[in-house]
């Protein structure tokens, strides 16, 4: 890749991570905390369920996407290893 494209992608990743961290850690929870409102059981349950769904989806994406991106490399690697071991195709 070209260095300026890599720098631009890095800058985008840094800004995106800062913005998402700010939103998820401060912008959403702080108004809820400072309101001193006691949330209903239903609202709290929904909040926890949505949080768990978010965590599981982000865990899946951050695990599955890198594996998916290198699938061609793994296929070629295992073909090479099988060839070195004398396994017939």
TrEMBL record:
The lineage of its organism: Eukaryota, Fungi, Dikarya, Ascomycota, Pezizomycotina. This is Uncharacterized protein. Coiled coil: none annotated. The chain crosses the membrane at residues 12-34, 46-68. It comes from the Eukaryota. InterPro entries: DUR. The keyword Transmembrane applies. One of its GO terms (molecular function) is urea transmembrane transporter activity. PANTHER family: PTHR46154, SOLUTE SYMPORTER FAMILY TRANSPORTER (AFU_ORTHOLOGUE AFUA_6G03200). Keywords: Membrane, Transmembrane, Transmembrane helix. GO terms for cellular component: plasma membrane. The keyword Metal-binding does not apply.
């Amino acid at each position: 890749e070209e260095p300026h494209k890599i720098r631009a992608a890095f800058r985008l990743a840094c800004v995106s991570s800062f913005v998402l961290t700010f939103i998820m850690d401060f912008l959403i929870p702080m108004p809820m905390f400072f309101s001193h409102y006691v949330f209903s059981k239903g609202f709290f349950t929904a909040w926890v369920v949505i949080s768990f769904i978010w965590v599981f989806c982000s865990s899946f994406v951050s695990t599955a996407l890198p594996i998916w991106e290198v699938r061609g490399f793994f296929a070629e690697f295992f073909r090479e290893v099988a060839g070195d071991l004398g396994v017939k195709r």
